[in-house]
Write a structure and sequence with these properties.
Layout lengths: L4 E7 L4 E8 L7 E3 H7 L3 E8 L4 E7 L1 E5 L5 E4 L2 E4 L6 E3 L1 H4 L2 E6 L2 E6 L4
Parallel strand pairs: 2-9, 3-8
Antiparallel strand pairs: 1-2, 1-6, 3-9, 4-5, 6-7, 10-11
């Protein structure tokens, strides 16, 4: 099965950078890579334990804003960090997907969202 990749913009309130994200309906929360944390140096806001394919690990959580490709509204997120960057730096999880219409039809992907609070 093909990976569903798209662009996102992440901001710490002062700077904004573009990243590649993967859409993952198996992930409960949106998480970011070490690269995002290194680039933006966001404020820490708690911690969480995350499960990876290797083990459970403790990760700081951060305060960031995310903008999805094709959407003008930014979304406040409190992501943990999944570690080393791969071909993507953001994993979009069900905390965002559940608020919109997620369509995958014959390899074409679309996501629309009205409003997140």
């Amino acid at each position: 099965m093909e990976k569903i990749l798209s662009k996102v913009w992440i901001s710490n309130g002062d700077s904004i950078n573009q990243y590649v994200c993967i859409w993952d309906t198996g992930s409960m929360e949106t998480i970011v890579s070490d690269k995002v944390i290194s680039d933006l140096n966001p404020d820490k806001h708690g911690y969480v334990y995350i499960n990876t394919i290797h083990k459970e690990k403790k990760s700081d959580k951060y305060i960031l804003q995310l903008s999805l490709e094709g959407h003008s509204q930014s979304i406040k997120i409190n992501p943990a960090c999944f570690g080393k960057s791969r071909e993507f730096d953001v994993i979009i999880g069900m905390d965002i997907i559940q608020h919109g219409l997620f369509i995958l039809d014959k390899g074409k992907f679309s996501f629309t969202i009205d409003q997140l609070k």
